[in-house]
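Input record, target 12 of the design panel.
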């Protein structure tokens, strides 16, 4: 089974990169999963952004700490293949896992959010994912860890690696050069990277984002424009485990 995971799609540049490049990649994969938490101008997922991601070839959309920033998501979560983090409190709309199928095999995709520096008080991502992995039948499991702290992503990889095929990190928006395998056999990458504006501060317009640091006061948020990139990671799943992990990066021509 060949799976592509596309990192946080950010604003119009991210949607443009997806529209321009994902259809070319589509035939090479059985399943495509896309993080869409920043698709609507950097904050949340609107119906129109959702449609664009699906039209370009996404089978499943995942979210993150921006999951509920756009009101459209409440309706989308009722019917569409979208997941938010599993470790939200009980009663949160939507669900934290989804089972995809390809060639008669089942891929369980689950997302948890970290507890370090995320500005939220969610449940323990370690025990929450552990319980779900034991409960939902699957051939392969892909755990997306939406977290700020590198240490927390590695800790989850070491804690759960013998029960998952791969752990892919998202949220920091910068593609990391550590894609490989942990000693417990799980494929691992700390961050898949962003699909969005290249010249930006993690997707945000440079001037407005700089203001936060320089003034230490809230500044209006603006998504950056300009040339886009697509960051994604390819996983090959075979004989019960992940046998290949390969990060990809595509840049919109000048
Ligand atoms: Fe993000
Ligand atoms: Fe995030």
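The sequence produced for target 12 reads:
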């Amino acid at each position: 089974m060949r799976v592509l995971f596309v990192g946080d799609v950010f604003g119009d540049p991210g949607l443009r990169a997806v529209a321009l490049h994902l259809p070319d990649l589509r035939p090479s994969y059985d399943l495509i999963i896309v993080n869409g938490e920043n698709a609507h101008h950097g904050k949340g997922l609107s119906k129109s952004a959702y449609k664009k991601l699906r039209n370009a070839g996404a089978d499943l959309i995942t979210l993150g700490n921006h999951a509920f920033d756009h009101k459209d998501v409440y309706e989308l979560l009722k019917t569409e293949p979208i997941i938010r983090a599993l470790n939200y409190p009980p009663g949160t709309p939507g669900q934290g896992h989804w089972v995809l199928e390809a060639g008669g095999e089942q891929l369980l995709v689950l997302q948890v959010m970290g507890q370090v520096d995320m500005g939220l008080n969610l449940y323990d991502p370690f025990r929450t994912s552990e319980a779900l992995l034991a409960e939902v039948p699957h051939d392969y499991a892909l755990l997306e860890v939406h977290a700020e702290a590198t240490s927390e992503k590695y800790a989850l990889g070491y804690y759960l690696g013998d029960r998952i095929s791969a752990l892919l990190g998202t949220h920091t928006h910068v593609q990391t050069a550590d894609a490989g395998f942990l000693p417990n056999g799980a494929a691992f990458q700390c961050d898949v990277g962003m699909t969005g504006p290249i010249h930006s501060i993690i997707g945000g317009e440079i001037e407005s984002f700089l203001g936060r640091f320089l003034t230490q006061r809230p500044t209006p948020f603006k998504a950056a424009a300009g040339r886009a990139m697509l960051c994604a990671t390819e996983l090959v799943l075979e004989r019960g485990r992940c046998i290949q992990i390969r990060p990809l990066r595509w840049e919109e021509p000048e």
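The two ends are 34 Å apart (CA to CA).
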